[in-house]
Amino acid sequence: MAKADINMPDHDNESRITLGLLNMVDDNSSTSQRSMASGLGIALGLANAYLKRCVKKGLIKVSQAPANRYAYYLTPQGFSEKSRLTAEYLKQSFNLFRHARTEGCELLGLCQTRGWNRVALYGLSDLSEIMTLSVRDYAIELVSIIDRDAYVTQFAGLPVLKAMPNPQDFDAIIICDITKPQTAYDEACAGFPAERVLAPQVLHISRNAGNGERKQGGGQ
């Protein structure tokens, strides 16, 4: 097999592949290297090289599974790196608005279907602005934006709060923090029922924080 540093992608592609690999391992610990390569659209040897690099960096741990197979798990450092790369990708992506608008509408539709008519946004960002525009097409009321680091008290006609309000004041939360989405999700779940904390898939948020077996968060 060729050396791992030969014909390696540029920095942007390298970050994209690493993020994709971490997401695949997070989604399915029993995924094979061949599946990783296929899902990422790269050669098997390159996928193997990236996997080894992630293991060496302490982002992924490997354990032996039955029938000579292997199971892959993200370490705490791996979850942190996944969040960092996700934020980096979101900041650089020209497709953020299109993806966020589509997924935001899906979440608002989900809230409407479930009768969650009063919704709070968690995180002040471009994504929260997109949500304030999208909500006009739904029988949903946005009641506030929660952001402990906010420097304003009002945004798009909504009050901006630095602390979680009374949970009885709203029915659901939608995560809009694109800088630290996983942290925002974990904070929201600490003060509100997790099954009512929703997030666009584009944020790559993992549920069940802290137990080592996370599932992708979208509130489905």
Question: What would your notes on this structure say?
Answer:
The structure is a single chain. The chain has 220 residues and is α/β, with parallel strands linked by helices. The chain has two domains: 82 residues, Winged helix-like DNA-binding domain superfamily/Winged helix DNA-binding domain (Arc Repressor Mutant, subunit A); 108 residues, Rossmann fold (3-Layer(aba) Sandwich), CATH 3.40.50. Helix content is 43%, strand content 16%. Strand 3, helix 6 and strand 4 form a beta-alpha-beta unit. The chain is elongated, with a radius of gyration of 19 Å. The relative contact order is 0.12. The N terminus is likely disordered.
Outline:
The protein has 220 residues and is an alpha/beta fold. Helices cover 43% and strands 16% of the residues.
**Domain unit count:** 2
Question: How much of the sequence is in beta strands?
Answer: 15-25%
Q: Counting H and I runs of at least 4 residues, what is the number of helices?
A: 7
Structural category: alpha/beta
What's the overall average pLDDT, rounded?
A: 84
Kindly identify the CATH topology of the largest domain.
Rossmann fold
CATH architecture of the largest domain: 3-Layer(aba) Sandwich
The level 1 CATH classification of the largest domain is Alpha Beta
- As laid out across the biggest beta sheet, the strand order is 5-6-4-3-7-8
Largest sheet: 6 strands, mixed
Taking all Cα atoms into account, the compactness measure Rg is 19 Å
CATH superfamily of the largest domain: NAD(P)-binding Rossmann-like Domain
Provide the low-confidence segments as ranges: 1-9, 209-217
Global outline: elongated
Distance between the termini: 42 Å
Number of strands: 8
Oligomerization category of the chains in this entry = single chain
- Fraction of residues in helix: 40-55%
Strand/helix succession: HHHEEHHEHEEEEHE
